[in-house]
Amino acid sequence: MDKEKLVLKKIKEKSLRLKNGEVTQNELILTHLMEKKRITAAQAFTEYGCLRLAGRIFELREEGVNIETMYTSNAGKTYATYKLVEASQ
């Protein structure tokens, strides 16, 4: 089992899971990164209602997930895209 799957399992086992059994934003975002590899704040808000993607990314990094931040400028605005970094085999 790779590191991201272990972290997802750990998140599910820890109190980061909501008491009513619903999936947390951290779980949703990690699953998104594992499946689609990238996410922006706009995507996180639209798809998961997450207003603080940077905070969720910080928490995932604290759990050991290797996530890279890429900055893009467009029309005078800069935004971050987060990418899951695959573990080298």
Entry summary:
This protein is α+β, with helices and mostly antiparallel strands and 89 residues long. The chain has helices at residues 3-13, 25-36, 41-48, 53-62; strands at residues 38-40, 67-74, 77-84.
Spell out the key features of this protein.
Arc Repressor Mutant, subunit A; 3 strands; globular; single chain; three-stranded antiparallel sheet; 46% helix; alpha+beta; 89 residues; 21% strand; 4 helices
User: According to CATH, what is the topology?
Assistant: Arc Repressor Mutant, subunit A
Shape: globular
The side-by-side strand order for the widest beta sheet comes to 1-3-2
Number of beta-strand segments: 3
| Main pleated-sheet profile | 3 strands, antiparallel
The CATH architecture can be named as Orthogonal Bundle
Which ranges are low-confidence, i.e. pLDDT below 50, for 5 or more consecutive residues? none
Distance between the termini: 12 Å
> Taking Cα atoms only, what radius of gyration do you get, to the nearest Å?
13 Å
Give the H and E element order: HHEHHEE
The H-level CATH homologous superfamily, spelled out, is Winged helix-like DNA-binding domain superfamily/Winged helix DNA-binding domain
Instruction: Tell me roughly what share of residues is in helical segments.
Output: 40-55%
Mean pLDDT: 83
- Structurally, the number of domains stands at 1
DSSP strand content: 15-25%
Look at the structure and give the CATH class: Mainly Alpha
The assigned structural class equals alpha+beta
Number of helices: 4
